[in-house]
Backbone:
């Protein structure tokens, strides 16, 4: 399955950036795409369309990490450390690719295609949010491969 292409299709259908990213990992999370759409619904557009907070493509990826590397026991410091480390690593990778992680900052900067946006180039995607979405999926896949989850 080409998760990047599927995320692009979800976004074209009207799902927000966070929903488009999370739903393509349904096979790994054990959640249905519909459950992931629901869980990520308010994260699009920098949290509810405000464009003031985190990019939805980043938020969606972090939601997937939380499902795949659960921290559910308040005393489990190792699980917390692992999840926070992965979240920080993902955010760093996204920032290194685009220079920002806030939706509004990304919209102002309008980073386009580069050598770091391979999936967007491969799929011939040139629109802003779609570049963020497919690159987020691509970066998350790389991280999950490194963690033995993919």
Residues:
């Amino acid at each position: 399955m080409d998760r990047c292409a599927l995320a692009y299709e979800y976004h074209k259908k009207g799902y927000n950036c966070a929903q488009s990213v999370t739903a393509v990992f349904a096979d790994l999370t054990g959640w249905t795409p519909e459950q992931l759409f629901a869980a990520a619904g308010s994260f699009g557009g920098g949290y509810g369309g405000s464009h003031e907070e985190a990019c939805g493509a980043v938020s969606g990826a972090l939601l997937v990490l939380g499902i795949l590397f659960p921290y559910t026991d308040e005393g489990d410091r190792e699980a917390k450390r692992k999840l926070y480390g992965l979240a920080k690593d993902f955010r760093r990778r996204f920032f290194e690719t685009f220079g920002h992680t806030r939706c509004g900052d990304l919209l102002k900067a309008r980073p386009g295609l580069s050598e770091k946006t391979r999936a967007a180039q491969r799929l011939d995607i040139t629109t802003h949010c779609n570049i963020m979405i497919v690159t987020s999926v691509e970066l998350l896949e790389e991280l999950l491969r490194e963690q033995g989850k993919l």
